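User: Please predict the structure of the protein below. I'd like the answer in structure-token form so I can feed it into my own downstream comparison script.

Assistant: Understood. Taking the following sequence of 558 residues as input:
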Amino acid sequence: MSDEAGPRRRRRPDGEGLRRDATAGLVLGVQSVPDGLATGLLAGVNPLAGLYGYMVGTLGGALATSSTFMAVQGTGAMAMLISDVDALSRSADPTRALVTLSLLTGAAMLLAGILRLGSMLRFVSNAVMVGFMNAVGVNIVLGQMANLTGYTAEGSNRVVRAVDTLLHPGSLDVRTLVVGLATIVLILLLERTPVRSLGLVVAVVLTSALAQLLDWHQVATLDDLGVALDGLPTPELPLLSAIPSLIIPALSLALVGLVQGAGISANFPNPDGSYPEASRDFIGQGVANVASGVLRSMPVGGSVSASALNKRAGARSRWSLVIASVVMAVVIVAFGGIVGSLAMSALAGLLILIGLRTIKPGNLASVWHTGPVQKAVLAVTFVLTMVIPLQYAVLAGVGLSVLLHVVRQSNQVTIRRRVRDADDQLVEVDPPDELPPGEVVVLQPYGSLFFAAAPMFQAALPQVGPSSTGSVIILRLRGRSDLGTTFMDVLRRYAQALDEVGSRLVIVSANERIIEQLAITGITELIGEDSIYPGDERVGATIARAEHDAGQWIRQRR
């Protein structure tokens, strides 16, 4: 068994593999230090909580997920969501409140994994995720305007504050703005050199050092926030009184993290060619969040950018993630004293670049041109994410996805009539608008027959008029395993209408569950047990027998 089959059974990497893992782990670990601090800053919590989350989450994910390359760290979307959680800022003990949020997020992810809810993510439409993620990118950019410019704007949301910033150019601190913009330019330049992935680390350190050398005291640093990196994180207890106010944010965080993690599971196959199991990765992310909560860290999830960097840097196994976590711990212990001198505008420049890269115009255009429904869902999700707290925007997006699914399924119900042509070949044609007298009409429904589709199904049935006498409607339900009470009500009313004009309803290929439902709802008593034909493994045998019996019934009446 390969080392990717699970965390309990792994072979040791060979010399070349270990060298590659060590290189990838070094790159990911070093980059994650300023990235983790910036993510904590973006989330509006102690930046150390972001850095600790990167370190603990990376290790927890490496040990518990089924994915070889998944880096479980803080993400921009999750950080923005955390920044909108008022219960954290209002709490008398923000550290313990954050611990509680991480633990609740981990519990939700663990539950999703244990219940194997990976397949449920298919109900979150692409239009919703594209609208949400692009709006998050815009929010990241707008949310860092204060740190980038040194001007604290006023306003009820990020859009209003950004406009206020643009309207007061004279209030901006030029030196702070120079450091931030220089960081962005330097990252872009260094990415084209052999430094590559470490460019952001070098850029943040150099611009922060430049501000110190020039004695630009106006440029705020992490020291000004009281950030003191004096060692590894220690355990902390949750704040139980904060649980009720943090349940919805935790569920939203879990959903965002799991959706992003599912994207990694689907797009980053393991070295042996197998794809990770989404539900197992849910459990791994849950374990990482529980560990993060215990060690005073912010919630984490599968990071697409960090996972891509890990693989691009040459990772061969999950040992690269373990090494990355160790590298972060070493940096914290050995160089923690200089972390406080990092300029906040330099970290803001890093975050703004991340936000700009989160915005994908091509994805927006693709969804926009798909159709009016997708266009509406995209627009609504984007606007909601911009104007309301993100935890509610996430849930609203999920609601839109479910609504879109229901609308699609309910509008895709069709009924076809099965007849024999001149060559005795079975063909499907449109059913008659009104049921003719003295005929056997075999109907085959297509599409979902759940409750929302019942009106469409009823409208597609042949209408029963005064002349629709002595006919038999045969409804073929092969492959159907369950029908709701709403659909049963439609069948009962249709059977009564047929009975009133001297016609019959026959149901064929029904399984045991449907037969039970027919009996419970009174349809069996109405149409008779001889009008219900159980399914048969021989395709076409049951329908042929029902047609023969229906023909005899019509001839006897004549």
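That's the full token string. Residues 1-10 have pLDDT under 50 and may be disordered.
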